[in-house]
Amino acid sequence: MSKRVTVFLPYQGLDHTKELAKTFHEDENVAKVYLLALEKDLPEVEGCGVLVVDSLRSTKTMRAVNENTETDFALLQLKDTKIEPGQFLLKRMTNVADWTSAGLVYSDYYEVKEGARSPHPTIDLQKGSLRDDFNFGFLVLLSKNATHDAYTKHALPDYEHAGFYDLRLKISQTYPFHRVAEFLYTSVETDTRKTGEKQFDYVDPRNRDVQIEMERACTDHLKHVGAYLKPEFEEIDLDVEFETEASVVIPVRDRIKTIGDAVESALKQKPDFAFNVIVVDNHSTDGTTEKLKEIAAKDERLIHVIPDREDLGIGGCWNMAVNHPKCGRFACQLDSDDVYGDDTLQRLVDVFRKEKCAMVIGSYLMTDFNLEEIPPGVIDHREWTPENGRNNALRINGLGAPRAFFTPLLRETPVPNKSYGEDYAVGLAVSRKYQIGRIFEPIYYCRRWEDNTDASLDVAKMNDHNVYKDRIRTFELLARVRQNASS
Fold first, then answer.
1. Are 185 and 83 spatial neighbours (Cβ–Cβ below 8 Å)?
2. Confidence (pTM)
3. In sequence order, which residues have a C-beta less than 8 Å from that of residue 370 and are 6 or more positions away?
4. What angle do CA 115, 119, 120 make, to 5 degrees?
5. What is the rounded CA–CA span in Å between residue 97 and residue 102?
6. CA separation (Å) from 364 to 57, 207, 211, 348, 443?
7. What tens digit of pLDDT does each residue of 173-214 get?
């Protein structure tokens, strides 16, 4: 049997890497094992070559992988953690790569977390899977032809952090990627934070240099596939006749613990214009409905709407609110768990008026239920720039909050009837033609508590969310390619 795979493992002198290297060295499919040493003078491992690298994800390291692969495929471990290969791991991956002419193959895996072993399925890659944190698992099989083409047909910048991301984008422009929906190995999970904590890593100021590189790589990819948008925007006429200048829109279902605080924070606003609060009560059963009726009886600015239909998600509730005859010129988001700052509404409308934009997004402070700040603190999405924000928006997983829309535009572009990602979909669609205004100081409090829907998600739900957002990005990518082709 020919030895068709060269293996590359991150190495910090740890025993689990030595054991894995030995296992692969003895595998009949493996021609050579290389250790990607993050330090010099680490203990040698019998039968293995050593490549001293600056980081696991740099362009320099990816080039070293390509240059030292003299076989048909390279197996690359993306993170230094304990791995136990499953039955016929390499044979299964190479077979799939041969049958499909894939540039990259990855698989599902088992993970051991806090001593318990459980399945961890991954998801299929789409055209819109542009997130730099897309989960390929811990092992990827790279075609030598694909990596060779990437480095000979493209001028790849020397990235310190975005080398693998840039490489996989370049490969995807020519070669298919395939996921083997089988659990081909086991890993030991080391990042045991909840999903609600991990999801904000990309806006951590400490990671700013990383994000700048990722944005450059993604923007270059969009240019290559015809989806890049120049910083040219359609003007929008805000002077449409409306009885009310702004409406605060609150979809809610069974939030008796928080809805009073949310509504109160909206009604306490003191802007220099008329406003109302439209709460779409999606058939609550826990006392929320009665609470809203009580508030509405005291303050006519609260418009309490109960849908006739019972198939609405958060997006469907938004559609009801913005198409309500009492909806104002600007529809401003407030989640039923959260609260406004003292001048949130005024700040949002001021940006609309000053910048003549179609949408405004503010910044928020992450807090506990009692409004005490919790990590990561302020979420301001400073990665958004007027010149490239709408391109970079295809890479990141959200646009921020609170979100406010020019109501006539939102009436023309219905919100997807979903309860996750619906706001992101609308934001991408708006940004395709129009400028989005930003407020980079926190004007909103996002409360995390035990009943938040995304505070802690299991793998199946997280995958479901990511598949949907990748699908949104796919639709938007294709729409932008079409728009550019017709202009």
1. yes
2. 0.92
3. none
4. 105
5. 5
6. 31, 19, 20, 13, 6
7. 999 999 999 999 999 865 443 444 444 444 454 578 999 999
